[in-house]
Amino acid sequence: MSAIFGFSGGRDDRLQATLSMTLGHRGGEEHIRASDSITIGLRRPEHNAEGGNLDCEQGSYSLMIAGHIFNEYKPAQILAAYCDQGPLAFASIRGAFVLSLYDAHSGLLRLVRDPGGERSLYYGQHAGRLFFASEPAAVLAAPGFPRALRPTAVSQYLSFSFVPGFRTMLEDLYELPAGHYLEFSTREARATPRLVRYFEFEDRETTEDAGTIAASTASDTRLVQGFRATLTDCVRERLACATDDPGVFLSGGLDSSLVAALVRQLHSGPLRTYALHFGRKYPNELRHARAVADRIGSVHREIEIQPRSFLERMENMILRLGVPIGDPVTIGNYELARQVAQETGHIFNGEGGDPCFGGPKNIPMMLSHWYGAQDRTGGDARSRARAYLGTYQRCYEELPGILSPDFAGGFDSSADLEEILIPFFEAERPNTFLKKLLAINIRLKGAHLILPKVERMTGAWGLQSWAPLFDRRMIEAAMALPPHLLLHRGVEKIVLKRAFENDLPREIIERPKSGMRVPVYFWFQGELKRFAKKILHPREIRRAGIFNEHRVKQLLKYDIEEGAGRFGIRLWMLLTFEIWRRTVVEREGL
After folding, report:
1. Which of 117, 192, 375, 547 makes an SS bond possible with 178, Cβ 3.0 to 4.6 Å?
2. Based on the structure, what is the number of domains in the chain?
3. Both 536 and 485 in a single domain?
4. 8 Å CB contact between 141 and 203
5. Does residue 276 sit in the same domain as residue 176?
6. Residue 515, pLDDT score
7. In angstroms, what CA-CA distances link 495 with 221, 258, 353, 485?
């Protein structure tokens, strides 16, 4: 929940206050370290409710941490390790954090994001200063900071539903990738930030032959037991940081269910679980969530959200995101956090189960790998990239149609989209195709969509979120496990199912993945229809010049010859993008 912010250059109390106020929802306690070269601030809950937040000075060094350190490192130990090892010390820090480490003697600033990406950091340069903050809004709050749209990012957003990589939708705003640090000299004129990766998980891959699915029962049992013990530690460490009885977002799927079971086993006090749904007439997983709650003995609550209850907060939700995210689950995260924050300050979730141990894109990609025309040993990386883009089932295949003619003229699918994925498919490590898919999921979708989305939607309401399945040890475990404990005969997450088969109802272990299905397909024919027509009015579409006015009209009328279910997600992506563009880029009200 806590947040960090700052800027290089001379002191400026007004600028400092502006950035800090933008992050006021992150906590009322403010810590500032300012000098003639740099100002660094920390926002956190009052009375140090987050015991893991740290800031200290030692010699010429100044350290600030937003988030939590889970191993036994204290500020002085972190600084001592840094003095001894330099940036290599970052690899030994375990936690959910962003930190700043400034050396007043050399004028060198290093900003570090945790290995999995449970916390976020954005940065950019303007007017001779480097600005950075946990949320995009705080960087953009700097007076005069440019808000120029990056055209290439529009096609990326429409294809992925988020913008992958360190570049964002805006030309001058960047996101620090997970497991990286940013290095910047405050002494050099026109200094350029330098990105360095310090967390490498790809080399943890097992040496087992990708085609080998048989293994000794004893070996598998040890691996499953070790996995469970490690995940238990990840949950225990996060529980130790909680200052009140925690809750769990319980969807009824495997990932959140096993996290809930572990929290229940490790926490002696009351445990609340929360299941989200969108009305009983739509498909939901309430029955499964209730079965888990009954099994573990939690105080369970089912929360319904519908457009009539959240439309008035849509603009604020997008402002809190700061960057466009076209996943409709976002509104569920935001509204659920709003209600849960009234009952607890700490919430666990099951995020990480899909990117690290499964993922809906893996099976179709593996089928193509096994039975397609591509060479299994090397493959055509470009064709694999195209196939992967297609698995998102967003707007990739109709970009020339949905973009305006002028905007589409500058679009290059090869350079703008495929080149993002090709390095993953061509990398030497990991060498198995399944692990390459996991690496893509972890580095792109996990660090640039899932974790930032959840952190900012919960942080908007003062709620601390925990994702133990995205701990660095879970990422390393995913790489180290033999493939047959991840995917076997079309069944994913074998290690999760085996590790918790005695802790959860049989239906949870055996049921196929469903996912949270937000009924946007139906909403845009009913409760959201008028709102969407207002936001996507032809006048606004023509004024922006980004989308094809005729195609948008067809989508609003559901007048395209293609399968059901595609209209809703495309309209949601267009809707949220337009709200973001008008409120963040144009700074207009709706």
Report:
1. 117
2. 3
3. no
4. no
5. no
6. 66
7. 10, 12, 11, 5
State the Cα–Cα distance between residues 382 and 268, nearest whole angstrom.
Answer: 52
Three-state SS at 500: coil
Residue 367 is encoded by which pair of tokens?
Answer: 């089928």
CA dihedral 260, 262, 266, 268 (to 10 degrees): 30
Q: Alpha-carbon distance 204 to 493, whole Å?
A: 18
For residue 195, give both structure tokens: 């990105």
Helix/strand/coil for 61: strand
SS (H, E, C) 377-445: CCCCHHHHHHHHHHHCCCCHHHHHHHECHHHHCCCCHHHHHHHHHHHHHHCCCCCCHHHHHHHHHHHHH
Instruction: Please indicate, yes or no, whether residues 8 and 50 belong to a single structural domain of this protein.
Output: yes
CB 175, CB 322: distance < 8 Å:
no
H helix runs in 482-528, sequence order: 494-499, 506-510, 520-523
Helix 566-580 and helix 151-160, axial crossing angle in degrees, nearest 10 = 150
Q: Is 506 exposed, middle or buried (0-12, 13-18, 19+ CB in 10 A)?
A: exposed
Q: pTM for this one?
A: 0.93
Lookup result for tokens 């990766």: 197
Alpha carbon distance 98, 138 (integer Å): 15
The answer to whether residues 496 and 353 touch, using CB atoms and an 8 Å cutoff, is yes
* Closest among 301, 255, 256, 305 to 279, alpha carbons compared: 305
Name residue, tokens 């297609």: 390
Can you give the residue range of the structural domain that contains 588? 519-590
Q: pLDDT by residue (tens digit) across 403-424?
A: 999 888 878 888 899 999 999 9
Assigned domain for 262 exists: yes
CA angle 193, 444, 237 (to 5 degrees): 90
Q: What share of the chain is helix, strand, coil (3-state, %, to 5)?
A: 45, 15, 35
Query: Per residue in 543-559, pLDDT tens?
Result: 999 999 999 999 999 88
pLDDT in tens, 458-495: 999 999 999 999 999 999 999 999 989 998 877 889 99
In degrees, rounded to 5, the angle at the alpha carbon of residue 58 between the alpha carbons of residues 53 and 59 is 155
pLDDT of residue 576: 96
Residue 210 has pLDDT above 50, yes or no: no
What is the rounded radius of gyration, in angstroms, for the C-alpha atoms of the chain?
Answer: 23
Mean pLDDT of the chain: 90
Residue 420 included in any domain:
no
1, 177 contact by CB (below 8 A): no
